[in-house]
């Protein structure tokens, strides 16, 4: 019974970390930018990987708990910052396509994890720590290549007010060209959002104007949980 309780806690602590990461992601991306958040997140995931990777050698379930908790925080931040960054650095004609690919690769990652977790592959007594550490490899690859990418143009213009940096980032991402249309769209967005207060979760829940959207989203998410996908 104690062992079952410990493993249940190890599984659940990931979701707790994910909730904390999601709640913090809005503030972090607005203050530090999506790129810095992703870099910080990669470091967190690598640290989490080291905890879970060495937990078997140290014979410490506490290390697994810490690692899973940190991985949850990383996943919560990543789910928001990565989608925003990928969409904002994409050319306008490809933005919708890129945003959709995030969901596709999320589902693909889950499928690959299920396959690797089979007892014939990495789901064995000797290899489970390698399976839990797999996400750190992806984080390491991103940590090596992401510094060569610029910060997203909308963040540079709307949050930092750096027009020159925004145009430089556009040219670096999309090549030489005339980006006055995109620049004007961002300036219009800045004018519309000027003075608008960023609401926290509780303030959003108390705002009557977003009730239809919240109801639709909750209905969709609750239906997803009840569709049998988790059981499958």
From TrEMBL:
GO cellular component: plasma membrane
Major facilitator superfamily (MFS) profile domain segment(s): 1-232
Highest rank taxon of the organism: Eukaryota
Protein name: Solute carrier family 2, facilitated glucose transporter member 5
Keywords recorded for this protein, A-Z: Membrane, Sugar transport, Transmembrane, Transmembrane helix, Transport
Keyword Disulfide bond: no
Leader sequence residues: none
Membrane topology: Multi-pass membrane protein
InterPro entries documented for this protein: GLUT, MFS_dom, MFS_sugar_transport-like, MFS_trans_sf, Sugar_transporter_CS
Pfam families to which the protein is assigned, alphabetical: Sugar_tr (PF00083)
Transmembrane segments: 6-30, 97-116, 128-149
GO biological process, any: dehydroascorbic acid transport
GO molecular function: D-glucose transmembrane transporter activity
Annotated localization: Membrane
Primary localization: membrane
């Amino acid at each position: 019974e104690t062992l079952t309780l410990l493993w249940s806690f190890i599984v659940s602590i990931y979701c707790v970390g994910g909730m904390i990461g999601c709640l913090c992601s809005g503030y972090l991306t607005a203050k530090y930018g999506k790129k810095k958040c992703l870099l910080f997140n990669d470091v967190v995931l690598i640290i989490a990987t080291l905890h879970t990777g060495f937990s078997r050698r140290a014979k410490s379930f506490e290390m697994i708990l810490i690692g899973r908790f940190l991985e949850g925080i990383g996943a919560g931040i990543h789910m928001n910052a990565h989608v925003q960054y990928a969409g904002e650095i994409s050319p306008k004609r490809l933005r919708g396509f890129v945003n959709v690919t995030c969901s596709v690769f999320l589902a693909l990652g889950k499928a690959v994890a299920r396959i690797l977790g089979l007892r014939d592959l990495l789901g064995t007594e000797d290899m489970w720590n390698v399976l839990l550490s797999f996400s750190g490899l992806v984080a390491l690859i991103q940590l090596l290549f992401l510094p060569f990418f610029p910060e997203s143009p909308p963040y540079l213009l709307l949050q930092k007010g750096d027009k020159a940096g925004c145009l430089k980032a556009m040219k670096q991402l999309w090549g030489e060209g005339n980006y006055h249309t995109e620049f004007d769209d961002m300036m219009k967005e800045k004018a519309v959002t000027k003075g608008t207060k960023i609401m926290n979760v509780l303030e959003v829940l108390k705002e009557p104007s977003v009730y239809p959207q919240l109801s639709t989203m909750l209905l969709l998410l609750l239906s997803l949980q009840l569709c049998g996908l988790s059981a499958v």
